[in-house]
């Protein structure tokens, strides 16, 4: 393995997890750089996970000021009014995250995701965004793809009791334990834009209804020019109309996207902490798999719904090319 | 306000708890109060509305009996694989219904004479050699077990571990070294039968491995003498070995062995005689790693690094933050259902490492209560007995203690107390109960006759059950020697009995033996469901039922007890009722 040995301090601190993924993986983790944007419940859970896991550095982007609403699912914001006078959410979270593990460099980057140039994205091994519009997701994903080295892209969204993760690892190589041997494997991922352009009718049977429902809401918000999550029960009629249009255009039966599910998704826009913990945990695991090169990463969507308790993986890619 | 009580295994799941706590906090399910701190370490004998246990097996078993509500996370983190289950009395099977694999044990002779795996060497180094040299001298120890046959050598063995007057530490260490790695192996080799089908061990003497004048080689001891701080005493530091991931050569292990032994006598003499192995005790881990590796070398077993040896010796539970976070989230979701009495939607959830049927999180329905289990089903027990001849003592000894396993029973007939055990009883009561014990059932102050329903409780386990009494005149002396027959009850799986004996038919003395579990034993296969099967939950449940198992937890960790409650006055209610 390239690079220096783990320090004594690192070996002691990460003892239990080194027993899970080995010293090589820990070394790769401690040299990795991660960017996150949109410091809401799920991303905060994710940050905590990878800071505890011992990544090299973590950069936070979120210029919003701390509000009551932000407090509700963000355990990194101390419930103490004096602590964050004039600070942005990213700055407050940064202070708290440093306490979780002093060996990780946590910092804040001010500005808007779309304004950062390619050279900015070059610095990272993984980029995780949340609360972004349809257009923004495509844009950031493209920037990651254009970067001179491979930058993994993750998008995560939670709507009430449901959550979704999208993963683009481009061309990912990993090692897999098969009986006694270690096998080298490779996966081709589509970009977010490519995945979105896969016609619904060519998707395999029984793709989870959450996939379609999330797309309907995403398109609705995009068409209305709203930010992610700016939706309420009053939009139900509009959402149902759009669903009908999309289903017709894709020759998909309208019954595959239950109205009750759409209603549930737009009613509870707030975050539900246990769902954040679960989605943030899965996302943390996926980023660690990617950085360490150990374990089979998921391709390319993950869904969780409290109602049935299932954590489902769907491969949304062009069946002909696989990407 | 909800009343929740949370039990957990302190070290291994501290993280899980903090996440759980923060999630709960944000759900508004609990309020953060200073009380939390003052409520730490309160015993489990209180009466609460809901209880949640995380990974504390002791507590779990008691809670199941109480019929309260429990969520468990079974950790098998070697494969980052976890299971979250719910146990609710009357709705699901109890925690103990699933057979748990007996902890891996090793026959004494494997440990003392014929190790074939590294873990055998670790057990030997930790439980025998380390205990012999630094532990309680009065404790029986099998270290010299094989030299018992050779009567002539028994004296040689008796005092070899005592340091002689004026013997310097290097001499002493080398004498111990030569005895356990050289002489003892030579003695074992003399029994040719043993080695017919086995790899023959090679005796190792210190002079063959190390130069005579060791002191000049490692004169660094003074460096470690700068401080007397317990945790900084390290043979690795004295010898300039840094990386715990490295495998030491036989010579390095031998030097660590002698150095660690010497450091124990020089720096930590006061503790000698009371030491027991602790995975956080650096010097102890170094000593055990070195000794296990020398023994492994002698028996042709592959060597292991300090890091690996520490994991085996300390039964370290693997832990990663991501899995804990997912588990905490799942627990909260189940806890909310429990609090909302949403009994039809309880799920047990497998967190899978590999995607199975498109899923990483696979929920299955909890199993129904087991009808033959008196803990989780509500089937009353029935006791056939001659009420005109049997005494209350017979019922207490033969049924309540021997079969139901209650050590502190309380027996009631309606509202009348017939018998109880406890420290806070006054003399009159004690005399009263003693008199009752000797009375025939039908002549008790509140007579027990056919059709009587007795209520039996165990204060310690908080277990209650009802026994229906049926009078019967005659019993078959051969088939029913107790003179009574209890039905509705099944013998618990005899896990404990297995633990007590070993291949030699000897009785184990050292409880640590049972605690070593072999890592490979943890592997668990995931259910395979035939192709084309829909995601049918009950189907999956059947497939997986057989495979549920739980990993014995690390006993090195102290069990902590934490709860959140505003109304803990109710803790006293039970006591009051009994007085």
TrEMBL record, chain A:
Domain called THIF-type NAD/FAD binding fold: residue spans: 14-310
UniProt xrefs under InterPro entries: ThiF/MoeB/HesA, ThiF_NAD_FAD-bd, Ubiquitin-activating_enz
Pfam families: ThiF
SUPFAM superfamilies attached to this UniProt entry: Activating enzymes of the ubiquitin-like proteins
Entry protein name: THIF-type NAD/FAD binding fold domain-containing protein
Lineage: Eukaryota, Viridiplantae, Streptophyta, Embryophyta, Tracheophyta
From TrEMBL, chain B:
A Pfam family: ThiF
Pathway per the UniProt entry: Protein modification
Annotated ranges, domain Ubiquitin/SUMO-activating enzyme ubiquitin-like: 383-475
Domain of life where this protein originates: Eukaryota
Keywords assigned: ATP-binding, Nucleotide-binding, Ubl conjugation pathway
Record field: compositional bias (Basic and acidic residues): 543-553
Span of domain Ubiquitin-activating enzyme SCCH: 270-310
Region described as Disordered: 471-579
Stretches with biased composition (Acidic residues): 554-563
Location of the THIF-type NAD/FAD binding fold domain: 84-373
Family: Belongs to the ubiquitin-activating E1 family.
UniProt protein name: SUMO-activating enzyme subunit
